[in-house]
Design a protein that fits this description.
Largest sheet: 9 strands, mixed
Strand content: 15-25%
Number of helices: 12
Distance between the termini: 44 Å
CATH superfamily: Spore Coat Polysaccharide Biosynthesis Protein SpsA, Chain A
CATH topology: Spore Coat Polysaccharide Biosynthesis Protein SpsA, Chain A
Strand order of the largest sheet: 3-2-1-4-9-6-10-8-7
Number of domains: 1
Order of helices and strands: HHHEHEHEHEEHEHEEEHHEEHH
CATH class: Alpha Beta
Number of strands: 11
Radius of gyration: 21 Å
Shape: elongated
Length: 312
């Protein structure tokens, strides 16, 4: 395990977290939601429900030694403030379960790179001065992964202080025909779709519960934070050959896999109104050609700037 993943995971795990008395981040961030899954009653129930599988690290130090074979793969770019909140809420309780971390910054902005180097310094950072596009960036990360499982994450999610990775791992290794395991909060789905999606009744899995979608449409795959077997990408990939996320979903459904959801959910979306438009591959090529056509400063100009920079 990488040193800062272990260190980050211990920041807040030395004692049982206190009961939440302040409003949930949905409300503190200005979202007019009342998500009961994130209040202390549901939260305490979650902890009691999953206690046989994993205790808080302060109660069970050996939880840090679990070898689940998971790598963190995170897409980022252009939203360093959201990325910082994502990492600061994910790592303290779940960073300990990642063997390695990969981050792709497809905008190449230095602010995003700075957040990664500060909060996750030993991650493999793939920062693109010329954008590759989302799917090619994900392919680039996944090709480097050496573990059987990937926790895919984006830079605009917030996580409740719960060690949920082992719960997702129990689900993905216990139930058949799973493409990935999500723990997105149901209220977050309602906000996104404008209605509540239909789910099957929860069924026991490991020491927790999971449920499947009970309605047609988008049952196979998505890029919300999820625990994913690398074998799914190997079976249908690379993602770059698909036009969009919906086409990837259809390809996964075609091989008989579907996603499941562990309940109660523990993370929710921060990026409403902050969407970053993906870069089409043709646009990336045009950007690269434009950069090549820009005149380069002369050697004398570069030396002059260097001397001015170091002058007292």
């Amino acid at each position: 395990m990488r040193p800062e993943l272990r260190a980050a995971s211990g920041l807040r795990c030395k004692r049982r977290p206190p009961t939440r008395t302040t409003p949930h981040l949905f409300e503190s961030a200005g979202h007019p939601l009342k998500n009961r899954e994130s209040y202390s009653g549901e939260w305490r129930h979650f902890c009691q429900q999953h206690k046989p599988l994993i205790r808080f690290a302060g109660e069970n130090p050996r939880s840090k030694d679990l070898n689940l074979g998971i790598s963190l793969c995170l897409t980022a770019g252009g939203r360093p403030d959201l990325l910082e909140e994502t990492l600061q809420t994910l790592l303290p309780y779940n960073g300990q379960f990642f063997d390695h971390a990969f981050v792709t910054n497809d905008r190449g902005d230095p602010e995003t790179d700075s957040v990664v180097r500060r909060l996750l310094p030993s991650a493999t950072l793939l920062s693109h001065s010329v954008p590759l596009g989302h799917h090619r960036s994900v392919d680039e990360m996944y090709a480097l992964v050496q573990t059987p499982y990937i926790f895919h994450c984006e830079d605009d999610w917030a996580f409740d202080p719960v060690p949920f990775i082992p719960i997702a791992h129990a689900a993905i290794t216990s139930a058949p025909n799973i493409s990935h395991v999500s723990m997105r909060q149901t209220e977050s789905f309602r906000r996104h779709y404008g209605r509540q999606r239909e789910f099957s009744d929860p069924v026991p899995v490991g020491s927790g519960h999971m449920r499947r979608l009970a309605e047609a449409g988008w049952r196979g795959y998505g890029f919300n934070p999820s625990l994913v077997p690398k074998s799914v990408w190997q079976a249908i990939g690379p993602f770059a050959k698909y036009a969009d996320e919906g086409a990837i979903n259809n390809a996964v459904e075609a091989i008989g896999l579907e996603r499941v959801f562990v309940v109660p959910g523990v993370y929710y979306h921060l990026g409403d109104g902050r969407h970053v438009t993906d870069v089409h591959p043709a646009t990336a090529v045009a950007i690269a050609e434009q950069q090549q056509q820009q005149p380069q400063p002369s050697l004398l100009s570069r030396i002059r700037r260097r001397l001015l920079a170091i002058a007292p």
